[in-house]
Structure formats: C-alpha cells, structure tokens
Amino acid sequence: MDRVFNCAGPDGNLHRLATPLLRHLLDAGRIRSDAHGLGVDVDHLSRVRDRKGNPQDDLLAVGPITKGEAWEIVAVPDIRRQVWNLARFLADEHWVGGEGL
User: Fold this and answer.
1) Which residue from 20, 58, 62, 94 lies 20 to 30 Å from 101 (Cα-Cα)?
2) 3-class SS at 44?
3) Measuring CA to CA, which residue among 59, 6, 7 is closest to residue 32?
4) CA distances from 70 to 17, 18, 24, 44 (A)
C-alpha cells in the first residue's frame, strides 16, 4: 500500500493551497472541497470523495484536512480516535473496542 503524509498546516481551503499533491488531486478530480470549504470532502469512514461525490476506497484522509466532516479534529485525542476508527475499518475489525483512547 502506498502512503502519503501531508503536513501542510491548518488552512484547508483547497483552492488557496499551493501544495502540489493536493493541487494535482483537485485538478484530476480525485478530491473536492467539503461543503464549507474547510478541507477535503470525506465520508464517515475517512474515504475521500471525488469530484462527483463518490467515496474512494483507495484514497483516505485524516486529521485537520477533514474538519468539514469531523469539525473538531485538531487536537491529538480527536485525531487519535479518527485514526483508530480508520484502522478498524481497514483491518475489517469493527468489533474491536477503543478502550484507553
């Protein structure tokens, strides 16, 4: 599995970002802005929605760039919970609890 980490900072307006990766994904229709212009549009499983609004199984996002869906996702405990939920989804281990998170 390929991995990419973007630590571009808190500004999630995709149309103002100069990050080449996000610019390329936006121009290619692989991502779109969320309804509030706060970041990337994702579903509740962290799957990024493409230009048409279809969630993609091969493109996922977590952290502040998803604040249009998760809103308060800037603190470590919130991001840790989001990543834990994503890991459970990816491992198909939805039954595993998150005690201690």
Assistant:
1) 58
2) coil
3) 59
4) 20, 23, 24, 8
* pLDDT greater at residue 64 or residue 29: 29
Cβ proximity of 89 and 30 under 8 Å: no
Q: Whole-angstrom Cα distance, residue 96 to residue 76?
A: 21
Kindly report the pTM of this predicted structure.
0.73
Which tokens is 38 given?
Answer: 């706060």
Q: pLDDT grade, residue 80 (50/70/90)? A: confident
Residue 91 has a pLDDT of: 83
DSSP 50-73: -TTS-EEEEEE--SGGGHHHHSS-
Instruction: Classify each residue of 44-58 as buried b or exposed e, where b means 16 or more C-beta atoms within 10 Å of its C-beta.
Output: eebbbbbeeeebeee
